[in-house]
Amino acid sequence: MSSPAVAVPSRGKPAKANLSGAPVRRLLAPAVIFMFVWMIVPLVMTLYYAFRRYNLMMPEVTGFAGITNFKLMFTDPTFWDSLINTLVLVGASLVITVSVGLGLAILFNRTFAGRGVARTLAIAPFFVMPVVTGLIWKNMLFHPVYGLLAWVFRHLGLNPIDWLAQYPMLSIIIMVSWEWIPFALLILLTGLQSLPEDQIEAVRLDGANRWQEFRHIVVPHLGQVLYVVVMLESIFFLTSFAEIYTTTSGGPGTATTNLPYYIYQSAFFQYDIGISSAAAIGAVILANIFSIFLIRFVAGNLNTGSRR
Amino acid sequence: MAIVELKDVVKNYGGKGSDAADNAVDSFNLTTKDGEFIVLVGPSGCGKTTTMRMIAGLENISGGTISIDGRDVSQVAPKDRDIAMVFQSYALYPHMSVFENMAFALRLKKLPDAEITARVQEAAKVLDIAHLLERKPRALSGGQRQRVALGRAIVRQPQVFLMDEPLSNLDAKLRVDMRAEIVKLHRKLAVTTFYVTHDQVEAMTMGQRIVVMLNGKIQQIDTPQRLYEWPANIFVAGFIGTPSMNFLRGKVGADKRSVANEHFNLTLTGARGGALAAHAGTEAIVGIRPEHLSYLAPNDPIAENVLSGVVEVVEPLGSVTMIQVQVGPYRVTAQIESHLTVAMGEPIRLRCQTDKLQVFDATSEQSLLQAPAAS
Amino acid sequence: MKDRTIGGILLTALAYFVALVMFFPILWMLLTAFKTEQNAFTIDPHFLFVPTLDSFRVALEQGSGYLHYALNSVVSAVVSTLVGLLLAIPAAYAMAFFPTKRTDFTLVWMVSTKFIPAVGVLIPIYLVYKQLGLLDNLAGLTLLFTAMNMPLLVWMVYSYFKDIPKDLVEAADIDGATTLQTMRKVILPLALPGIASAGLLALILAWNESFWSLTMTDHTAATLAVYIASFKSAEGLFWAKMSAASVLTVAPIIVLGWFAQRQMVRGLTFGAVK
Ligand SMILES: Nc1ncnc2c1ncn2[C@@H]1O[C@H](COP(=O)(O)OP(=O)(O)O)[C@@H](O)[C@H]1O
Ligand SMILES: [Mg+2]
Question: Of A87, A186, B91, C25, which sits with the fewest C-beta atoms within 10 Å of its C-beta?
Answer without folding.
Answer: A87
